[in-house]
Design goal:
The chain has 72 residues and is mostly helical. The chain has one domain (12-65). Helices cover 49% and strands 0% of the residues. The chain contains 3 helices and no strands. The chain has helices at 12-25, 29-42, 49-55. The mean pLDDT is 90.
Length: 72
């Protein structure tokens, strides 16, 4: 079931950018708004491996993870 959504107090620059983007995609500003919401909320952007690695916390030094040879 569809629901109506009203967005108030949108900056003029944002509204103008929405209209430009809509025109570029050949749809109305309302249809573009729906697509932006759909893609942002239902299909979040996947992060690259580099982004995932960069987001990992620093939990030690390289030596902490070094493989040590067994001595008998």
């Amino acid at each position: 079931m569809a629901t109506n959504l009203v967005v108030r107090n949108v900056e003029k620059e944002v509204a103008a950018a929405l209209k430009r983007r809509a025109a570029k995609h050949g749809r109305s500003a309302e249809a573009e708004h729906r697509e932006l919401l759909r893609s942002a909320l239902l299909h979040p952007k996947r992060r690259s491996v580099a982004e995932v690695l960069a987001s990992m916390p620093n939990v030690g030094t390289d030596e902490d993870f070094a493989i040590r040879k067994r001595t008998r």
